[in-house]
Amino acid sequence: MRPTPSIVRVIDLETTGQAPPMHAVVEIGWQDVALGSDGRWELQGEGGSILVNPGRPIPPVTMAVHHIRDEDVEGARWWHDVARPVLDPWPRRVALAAHRASFEEQFCTPALTHGNSWICTWKCALRLWPDSPGFSNQMLRYWRKPAGMDHERGLPAHRAFPDAYVTAFHLRDMLNEASVAQLIEWSAAPGLLPRVRYGPDRGREWREIDNEVLHGFLSDRDPDIRFTAETELARRRGGGEIGRASAQELLL
């Protein structure tokens, strides 16, 4: 019997808004990334996208982002008919992935994914490429310039397949730097931010701010900020000095 291939499926959704049940999916896109016989990960297959009838009007504010209109999805299939074949195909993928996967996970519930694990390429980019000037899907695209990407195939932005296609190149390169298990572990935790987001220290690396300021971030409402401050304080309690982490430390 042939071994089950190692494939991660990248997912991207366009929706009527930010969260169910008030909002619903209007388009799902996907692109697979597979482990080759040479031990390297590469994009596999053509990927695709399917329009979905959300069962409600699409607000103009979201229509202005993805340009999918009510008339475009009027005769489309419903989400429960579309989702499972895309999210839980045969053979089973070793994980699903998305950029800021917490958004997709709201709509792609465990019942639809068969409890599949998720990789968040946004959280993993924070760990692997902390020098990036930003961490949006498109910022990483133009900062990193991934090898082999077809520029036109990744357009227009904010449509399900082009965005999944771009994310797949980030994922491919991440998988060639770190294991699936490591990416899933990082994705399950809050984001580890490389730089302070606001205040007098905005833009500075967390290792550059003093302990008193760092303690002030422990009560922040943002879980990523709290987690980053806690992680940096734990590092200092372990004997670390204020200063920039080495590339090796950032991978741990």
Automatic annotation (TrEMBL):
It holds the Pfam family RNase_T. InterPro entries: Ribonucl_H, RNaseH-like_sf, RNaseH_sf. It comes from the Bacteria. SUPFAM superfamilies: Ribonuclease H-like. The keyword Hydrolase applies. Residues 7-180 form the Exonuclease domain. This is Exonuclease domain-containing protein. The lineage of its organism: Bacteria, Pseudomonadati, Pseudomonadota, Alphaproteobacteria, Sphingomonadales.
